[in-house]
Amino acid sequence: MTLNTILVAAGPGDAERAEEIADATVEVAAPSNATVVLSHVFTEEEYDDVLERLEFDTERTEVTPDEVAQRHATIRTLADSLDAYDVEFEIRGAIGEHGETITDLAEETGADRVIVGGRKRSPTGKAVFGSTAQTVMLSAPCPVTFVREE
């Protein structure tokens, strides 16, 4: 199967598994010369917190989710890894509920594959707390690669 576009959904908990996510991305992107879309989805509350923490001057200029995502540490780490392997990528940010918005981004970008990180959870943990990765795996318009923390 030829892959043209791979959506990598990086979240706040992915910092410790960024290397594994990058390796999984390179493994599928490099052979097919696919373009990678590095994405970070923020809830409204997370977005406001990040704008404040990164000291964006929102009174002088409008700040887009793409600009905020570009400054996110995990996205920068992934971008550096992809650069090292000459994998082409773009960075997208979005605001919304994590799982649904990642699925929307997969549709908008025409993704042939989604790569998402997560941690191992018990069935009870999934039912009680929900799971972004589970939502994406069940709703994405394409195959999903799940990169679990060690």
UniProtKB/TrEMBL annotation:
<dbReference type="InterPro" id="IPR006016">
    <property type="entry name" value="UspA"/>
</dbReference>
<dbReference type="InterPro" id="IPR006015">
    <property type="entry name" value="Universal_stress_UspA"/>
</dbReference>
<feature type="domain" description="UspA">
    <location>
        <begin position="4"/>
        <end position="148"/>
    </location>
</feature>
<dbReference type="InterPro" id="IPR014729">
    <property type="entry name" value="Rossmann-like_a/b/a_fold"/>
</dbReference>
<protein>
    <submittedName>
        <fullName>Nucleotide-binding universal stress protein, UspA family</fullName>
    </submittedName>
</protein>
<comment type="similarity">
    <text>Belongs to the universal stress protein A family.</text>
</comment>
<dbReference type="Pfam" id="PF00582">
    <property type="entry name" value="Usp"/>
</dbReference>
